[in-house]
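call fold(seq) -> tokens
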Amino acid sequence: MSRLRRIRAEAVAAWHSFLRRRTAVFFTFFFPVLLVVIFGALVRTQPTDGGLFAEPAAYYIPGYLATVVLFTPLSRVGSEIARHRDDNRFEKLATTPLGRGEWLLAHTLVNVAIIGLASLLILGLVVVLTGAAVPITPRLALLGPFIVGAVVLFCGFGAILGRLSSTQDGVIAASNTIAFPLLFLSDTFVTLELLPGWFAPLVELSPLTYFARGVRALTYGPAIEESYGLELAVVAVLAVAFFVAGAYAIPRTD
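ret:
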């Protein structure tokens, strides 16, 4: 079997495995929808009042997208590794030609497809429910590379968590412990002006910060003239680094 066919076979199996887990489907597609409905349609932004949600609705598009770009890969890939390890599946895979990098690539491709669909759903709901004005320009097409890069990055991160955590519950706990602070402290929902001055430099250390700023430069009118090249480059470099580290962290299957 060629490498392409091995990756395709593993990806198809991972896709069907995802569809069989209704809880995973719910949290991937409907949890972000609930956030959009609650914060975007019910709480609504208050551009003149200051505080949280004081910016126009389109400003928070990166935050809504980050819920799936961040949480889904961390928990899914980490849980898959823990599940494979608990069920001795990696020992079985060791008898096949499938390599560690191929296994992670197959699962990353599935996550890219899942999160791509969820991102389209979220973006559409934000526009419909909140009235957010997203500038339709050629650069909007770069939203795809940002999402793909972030998914690859956090799939690699999830693989590392799966290796370090001893159980599936441990993976979920670790991923939530990491993801929740990143979600709100990476220039997504909470603006830098609301954070203490000493904390602002720490925001620059979050990979999600560069995703959020890049997406905002593509989807938020007042930021449409801002550069996004540096942010895209950082996301791409980190994606490669985390993917390599994640592939190395997977228990040997070759």
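Residues 100-130 form the longest helix (31 residues).
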